[in-house]
Amino acid sequence: MIDPIVHVCLLHGLRSSLKIGLKFCLRPWPVGGNNKDKRFMPTAGRLAGAVFLALYGWYIAGIAIPYFPEANAPGYLIPLCAALGVFFGWRMLGRHAGLGYQAAIGQGLTVGLVFGFSVLFVMGFMQMISKAMRHHYDGPMEALLGSFTEAGVIALYFASINIIASILIGGVLCAWGTEYFAKRYP
Length: 186
Known about the structure:
This protein has helices at about 5-25, 45-65, 75-95, 100-135, 140-155, 160-185. By secondary structure, the protein is mainly α. The longest helix has about 35 residues, at about 100-135.
């Protein structure tokens, strides 16, 4: 039996959520001048960021292959890096393009770090899934923690100055290229 006070609080929360949802869904479509609608529009900066970071991801995957044990990288490494490059180039670099070359340095370093950690997390998650299919973990919580452990083990393979410098310097170069195209073709 649910406590009546909890029941009333749940109903009130549900009613408030429905009100907010209906207000959002039934609002009129904004016509002109709304700056929020421009965040989804394709621009030259977004396209340049996506292309540059896709090439950057392909390059990083290529130089990372020898660092795997026995140079045996997973087959999904190059498509994963290219896809994450397109995503982060469009969403992060492209969105903030046009703020200047000094801001692009910060954006490039941020995107490089986010890209690197995202690749490590996805690879750790895929490794965890393959181990979970062989019943290596006792429960779902242990498997979830195992994905972070696997990402840490994979990160130790890449603890090289060549990989780290390539990630950071490449991120800044991609941000500068994106900034150039964003300023040249607004």
